[in-house]
Design a protein that fits this description.
The chain is α/β, with parallel strands linked by helices and 435 residues long. The protein has one domain: TIM Barrel (Alpha-Beta Barrel). The protein contains 18 helices and 8 strands. Strand 2, helix 6 and strand 3 form a beta-alpha-beta unit. Helix 7 runs parallel beside helix 8. The longest helix has 22 residues. The radius of gyration is 22 Å and the shape is globular. The two termini are 34 Å apart.
């Protein structure tokens, strides 16, 4: 590779936001239309959507520069045609230098999935489970048609009703026939069994049989304790990532990866530096338990009826089965790529969220990766994602040769003054999870 060669970039975190009434209603079974319309009315009455209408009518002006910056960013997301139009999305990808995107629900544009909210979690637990399953299938049908516009470049993340395992399996099999290959795995919570439960064995087998990758996005777990307080937004920021990571130790200690060697899971937009410390903790738990267990009796994960001994350490299962979608990677995270596992770290833009890299994606890639050897950049920016998601490298290489960023471009450090001071967080972090 020379300095003029182009990287093949895969964003492993992006979003779509179809209109409830304009895009999704046509996929709703007639017997649920009354419920659908009532839910759409509910969404339109949300405070943020009321405020957006006020801004549209000129009745909501920002009071300071920071407010103006955030409101302008939200206006930009709401106006993003790529959230519901694949042609517009492909144009934005070309400008950003992105060959392919993994697309979650949750467009941050005031739209929701029917009965499921943003579509990252399992939905509100007090919402009828049957309706939530119907809403997921409505999204899946729309997503299958949306990604069919360019199936090599647009990789949709479908919804599965994990609270109803036979229904989830049927949805996986339907998705495979529709050309989908990734399933959103809601973070664990108290209204359905932990992922260590043997009850999920048929689901894991179905994912393996259909070559499905699982993905858990941040913001997908238990409601944050104290979210209704005046400091609720701070508590959500502090706890949101933790709740979305809980599936990791449930899957490892539940022996899921031991029994299903082809199963893969991606932890999306959950930052990166938590991984080394977490793996050290999990390895120490495993080591202590293994010593105690050997003193008494041994059991096998093949017939796990009591607490068995993992034949491998948690960090070994991580290395082979678990991946990070490093949405808007920070330089301090990239510097720890050796600890995280270079073969476990991928890049994501979070398109088109206000906290993501769009429309400054090329600048953000330079910020995170300038000075990193080109062969390692290739892995982080796209080569690993090709393998994890089973993408067509030849087809995407043709795209990358046309629109991808060059080695020389990404290797050029940015002048931080190129980023307005009120935007020097999230996509341009230098301290921690947010700043």
């Amino acid at each position: 590779m020379t300095n003029t060669d182009r990287y093949l970039v895969v964003s492993t975190d992006a979003h779509a936001g179809p209109s409830l009434r304009g895009d999704l209603r046509q996929y709703c079974p007639s017997s649920y239309l009354r419920d659908f319309d009532a839910y759409a009315d509910e969404v339109e009455s949300r405070p943020w959507n009321r405020r957006a209408r006020a801004r549209r009518d000129g009745n909501d002006e920002p009071t300071d520069r920071l407010s103006a910056q955030w409101l302008a960013a939200f206006d930009r997301v709401r106006a993003c045609e790529g959230l519901h139009d694949p042609v517009a999305r492909l144009h934005d990808m070309d400008v950003d230098g992105i060959a392919a995107e993994v697309i979650f629900a949750g467009g941050e544009n005031g739209e929701e999935l029917p009965f499921l909210g943003l579509g990252l979690s399992a939905g509100q637990r007090d919402r009828d489970a049957e309706l939530r399953a119907v809403g997921g299938h409505i999204w899946n049908r729309w997503l299958g048609e949306y990604t069919a516009a360019e199936p090599n470049r647009l990789i949709g993340v479908m919804q599965i009703p994990v609270w109803d395992i036979p229904a989830a399996i049927r949805e996986i099999e339907w998705g495979a026939r529709a050309g989908l290959r990734v399933a959103n795995l809601p973070a664990p919570r108290g209204d359905f069994p932990s992922y260590a439960s043997q009850a999920y064995e048929p689901l894991w087998r179905a994912c393996e049989a259909n070559a499905f990758v699982l993905a858990t996005h941040s913001g997908a777990g238990e409601p944050v304790l104290g979210a209704e307080e005046s400091v609720g937004c701070l508590l959500m920021a502090a706890e949101g990532h933790f709740h979305s990571r809980r599936g990791l130790w449930q899957l490892i200690f539940g022996g899921v990866f031991e029994r299903h060697p082809e199963l893969k899971i991606v932890f999306t937009e959950q930052r990166a530096t938590w991984v080394p410390e977490t793996l050290r903790d999990l390895d120490s738990i495993h080591r202590a338990h293994k010593w105690l267990e050997v003193q008494t009796h041994e059991t096998s994960y093949a017939t796990a009826t009591s607490t068995p001994i993992l034949p491998r350490s948690p960090s070994e299962y991580w290395a082979d089965h678990c991946f990070l979608s490093g949405s808007f990677l920070a330089p301090f995270e990239v510097r720890r790529r050796g600890e995280l596992g270079l073969q476990n770290l991928m890049w994501g833009s979070d398109y088109p969220h206000t906290e993501g890299t769009w429309p400054r994606t090329r600048l953000a890639m330079r910020y995170a990766l300038a000075g990193v050897p080109a062969d390692e950049c290739r892995v982080i920016l796209g080569e690993l994602a090709l393998r994890v998601f089973g993408l067509d490298e030849a087809a995407l290489r043709t795209v990358a040769d046309r629109i991808g960023p060059t080695v020389a471009e990404i290797d050029e450090p940015i002048d931080i003054d190129q980023v307005p001071i009120e935007e020097r967080f999230l996509a341009f972090r230098n301290l921690g999870a947010y700043a």
